[in-house]
Amino acid sequence: MKKSANGNMYEATLFETREMFAPYLSGAAEGVVCVVCIRPLATKAQAALCSSAAALGYGREACIFVTLHENDAEESPALDPQALFLLVEGLDPLVAIAADKESATALGQAYHHAVTLDAPGRLFGRSIVAFNSFEKLLDSAQGKQTAWALLKKLPKFGEQ
User: Fold this and answer.
1) CB of 128 closer than 8 Å to CB of 96
2) Which of 7, 34, 50, 90 is such that its CA lies 20 to 30 A from the CA of 16?
3) Reported pTM
């Protein structure tokens, strides 16, 4: 087992996970809000999620984004369920967000537990919200309110 500089085994696991899955990751290196999406989210959607994480007390730099395809290459194979499970558990976020239907399905397969769209839930003891399409909700004022209402179902930092 690789040791971290300060000997913290959890930090070593996080480092190894980020290193192993680097082509699938973006955002905050030590993010506590894991956002899973089929492809990278538009800048506007990423900013909205970062603002939401800050409003919930997780901080502005709380989101780590996981794409199911390496470097957004649609022709690359998607992460298989076991790899997605290892990735999310290695990151060990406080909460998770499935940004689209495909990522909700993939998380459901990885955890052998159905992830309900447009609803809050639990995934391996972790709070999760899953969207049919977070980006499409941002196209209208009503959609933004709907998205925020669902995101507010996540616990505020320290409430879990």
Assistant:
1) yes
2) 50
3) 0.89
